Amino acid sequence: MIASNLAPILEWLDDKSVTEIMINPGGRVFVEAAGVLSAKGVLISDLDVEKTIIAVGKYAGKNPRRDSAAGIVYASIDDLRFSGALPPVCPDGSFISIRKHSDKSERPSMENLIAWNMLTQEQAERLEDLVLNQRKNLFIVGGTGSGKTTLLNALLNRLPAYERVLTIEDSREIHLELENHFPMVANVDKGITARDLVKLMLRVRPDRLVLGETRGDETYDVIRAFNSGHPGSISTIHADSAEQGLAALEMMFQMSLPENARMSDTVMRQCIAASVNVVVFVSRSTVKKDGVAKVVRKVTEICIVKGVVDGKYVLENVA
Questions:
Q1: pLDDT tens, 302-312?
Q2: Fewer CB within 10 Å, N- or C-terminus of the chain?
Q3: What's the confidence (pLDDT) of residue 65?
Q4: Each residue of 2-16: pLDDT tens digit?
Q5: What is the CATH number of domain 2-100?
Q6: pLDDT band with cut points at 50, 70 and 90 for residue 106
Q7: What CATH architecture is 104-317?
Q8: How far is CA 219 from the centre of its chain?
Q9: Are 124 and 118 in contact (CB under 8 A)?
Q10: CA-CA-CA-CA torsion sign (214, 216, 221, 224)
Q11: Predicted structure pTM score
Q12: What is the C-alpha to C-alpha distance for residues 315 and 244, in angstroms, rounded to an integer?
């Protein structure tokens, strides 16, 4: 259905340098390739965009329709992460965003990320020592499209083969070439929540817990799980710095406390500091050169969480 309805964008779906394809209301297409975002013009009819959203929604076990929240669709199809919505989410019409991931055999390695200047050799070695060797618990922080999952994949694929790694996501983006790994996928529409899967994960003897993104009522259980005999566990979170990542984690932690539970800010921060040992911030910026705007992704902070003093986190930036 994607190939049929979205034929004008197939060349970019097949192009390995393309990472994101965006179809705005009215059928206007934008493509990000090798960090450069370019406009391709009005290429697709509103009807074909709408038919594609409905088809992908049904593929994902949903029944998309206009004039309700059911018109919002998320799905993973092979190496594509599909997001779209029908009106009236946007009054101007339907829209689609397709995030492309490299083929499993071509996922960026730590060496690739160093070559692309996303991080330095020293930063890579420091991260690997902290997380892989010393088994410190890690949160990777950044904005949408900053490269959090790319870094997560590259780092995890350096793990030794004997480790048992379980992953939890709501959209498949983590792909590991590890023998003792299997993914679990949350699906709220089918009653399978990330919180359910975190609790299940603790019962099936993982060496490390990996949550693709911490974002909701699973946060309390994740923080407890990180400090319950699973050192070297990893998750990601949306924020604009390492410190703001911890602040975002606090907010979700408070919101996810068991019913009628109460915890002071100081005790909460001590709990988080005991569970989260390292916070890495990946920035995403746009740099103009010769009239061309290019997206630059870069590790700018590697902070060790030293504890809490006078109610504030003590962070040591070792980047």
A1: 999 999 999 89
A2: N
A3: 82
A4: 888 999 999 999 898
A5: 3.30.450.90
A6: low
A7: 3-Layer(aba) Sandwich (3.40)
A8: 15
A9: no
A10: positive
A11: 0.83
A12: 12
- CATH 3.40.50.300 positions along the chain are 104-317
Mean pLDDT of 88-104: 85
The rounded distance, in Å, linking the Cα atoms of 159 and 141 is 21
CB distance 67 to 90 below 8 Å: no
- 10 Å Cβ neighbour count for 255? 11
Contact between 306 and 315 (Cβ < 8 Å):
yes
User: CATH 3.30.450.90 occupies which residues in the chain?
Assistant: 2-100
Q: 83 pLDDT exceeds 70?
A: yes
- pLDDT tens digits for range 274-288: 999 999 999 999 888
Residue type, 13: L
Contact of 212 with 174, CB cutoff 8 Å: yes
My answer on whether omega of the bond before 206 falls inside 30° of 0, hence cis, is no
d(CA 313, CA 307): 6
Please list, residue by residue across 179-200, b when 16 or more beta carbons sit within 10 angstroms of its beta carbon and e when fewer do.
eebebbbbeeeeeebbbebbee
3-class SS string, the chain: CHHHHCHHHHHHHHCCCEEEEEEECCCEEEEEECCEEEEEEECCCHHHHHHHHHHHHHHCCCCCCCCCHHHEEEEEECCEEEEEECCCCCCCCCEEEEEECCCHHHCCCHHHHHHCCCCCHHHHHHHHHHHHHCCCCEEEEECCCCCHHHHHHHHHCCCCCCCCEEEEECCCCCCCCCCCEEEEECEHHHCECHHHHHHHHCCCCCCEEEECCCCCCCHHHHHHHHCCCCCCCEEEEECCCHHHHHHHHHHHHHHCCCCCCCCCHHHHHHHHHHHCCEEEEEEEEEEEECCEEEEEEEEEEEEEEEEEECCEEEEEECC
Backbone Cα Rg of the chain: 20
d(CA 317, CA 221): 27
Q: Mean per-residue pLDDT for 220-227?
A: 90
